[in-house]
């Protein structure tokens, strides 16, 4: 490990792509990111133009390569999971890239989930039966756009599409495939029953390869566009969730990575694939011997943003600090006020598109500070439910590392540690998934012995320990928080049934200038 070889980690995210060059000592040498829109042409749709994303990937690589003084030993890729694109026989997109945030397949997902084989399908493929996943999306295409469904020669993810353009290889890695609902995670092979449900054949899917699979080089066109030699190796890479664990240094069994940005997730590293008996968690691959078990939540920092817009519009935009100061004035437990933070529906651990947000326990004595604090507590309580599901899957939890925008707030850090009832460690600034991709690439190219070096390369800035009294309060409230979901499911169902006959929701009002 001379610290001289350079690998560029390319992270294809939902709203932007970021390329970061690292040496084998973990030092960041150059970084560039390019954003792109998430299109929502109809309610529930969340799709993107694959060509725009490809252009962003190429542009980011080109910018980083131009900044470097060292040769690039290889590229390695991370990607947002659950995307789906239909290609024709020539590899041209027939559909947009349908993202994880797209919920048009809600009815199909609920039908599949309620079927006798629903839970078995989840446990076999590692992917919850939820509208985020490609399996229900494929059923939606078969039912709603059958002619288009028949015309598609290949169904791929956004990373598969990028690699097809850069290296003329139609492959998908075990990590991305483990998030489709179409691969048997125990056999690392496409699942015949899932393909039958989706109405597709194995020939319509890319070849399955390990995450460390190396493609030998770029096409002449891609080499010109990126400024790299044509023989630059490409490491196929993995999904952004498992790679975020690696980028945080949470690489050993029992080490949990918790990330809270707009949404949130909690994942623990394990050595063998498996899902809990109730299907509360996902199980996605990192390598053949490393898997992550956990759950994602839809509502993280977006809940604080909503609280600012809805409860304190007079503070204007970028009022996070004032909001957090307001929340700090309310007591632990918000005076018995509980918020279910399901503003954008929810994923783990219930994996249903039905729920909506709710405040329960509101009294005449509650003020805005209680409502804002209850919103923060609701996000952390939801993460506590995910952690309970991770443990229910038979996994030891020894250490929690957390990252994301929320980590800048001392109040939110403390509420998280209190709600989880465990110390939470916050690593020094890092790029998460792109660093994980670079490390995986270094292992694949023989530049480091093992991805285990991540544990030593990631430095911890601060450890926040739970306050015993606050932790006891949250532990007492968690069963109530959990029961509320089940109690309100009939109401959520009725609201959705009534929705078409209700006046449309008013557009959000602009905050005063």
From TrEMBL:
<keyword id="KW-0808">Transferase</keyword>
<dbReference type="InterPro" id="IPR018484">
    <property type="entry name" value="FGGY_N"/>
</dbReference>
<dbReference type="InterPro" id="IPR043129">
    <property type="entry name" value="ATPase_NBD"/>
</dbReference>
<dbReference type="InterPro" id="IPR018483">
    <property type="entry name" value="Carb_kinase_FGGY_CS"/>
</dbReference>
<protein>
    <submittedName>
        <fullName>Carbohydrate kinase</fullName>
    </submittedName>
</protein>
<feature type="domain" description="Carbohydrate kinase FGGY N-terminal">
    <location>
        <begin position="7"/>
        <end position="247"/>
    </location>
</feature>
<keyword id="KW-0418">Kinase</keyword>
<comment type="similarity">
    <text>Belongs to the FGGY kinase family.</text>
</comment>
<dbReference type="Pfam" id="PF00370">
    <property type="entry name" value="FGGY_N"/>
</dbReference>
<dbReference type="Pfam" id="PF02782">
    <property type="entry name" value="FGGY_C"/>
</dbReference>
<dbReference type="InterPro" id="IPR000577">
    <property type="entry name" value="Carb_kinase_FGGY"/>
</dbReference>
<dbReference type="InterPro" id="IPR018485">
    <property type="entry name" value="FGGY_C"/>
</dbReference>
<feature type="domain" description="Carbohydrate kinase FGGY C-terminal">
    <location>
        <begin position="257"/>
        <end position="444"/>
    </location>
</feature>
<dbReference type="InterPro" id="IPR050406">
    <property type="entry name" value="FGGY_Carb_Kinase"/>
</dbReference>
<dbReference type="GO" id="GO:0016301">
    <property type="term" value="F:kinase activity"/>
</dbReference>
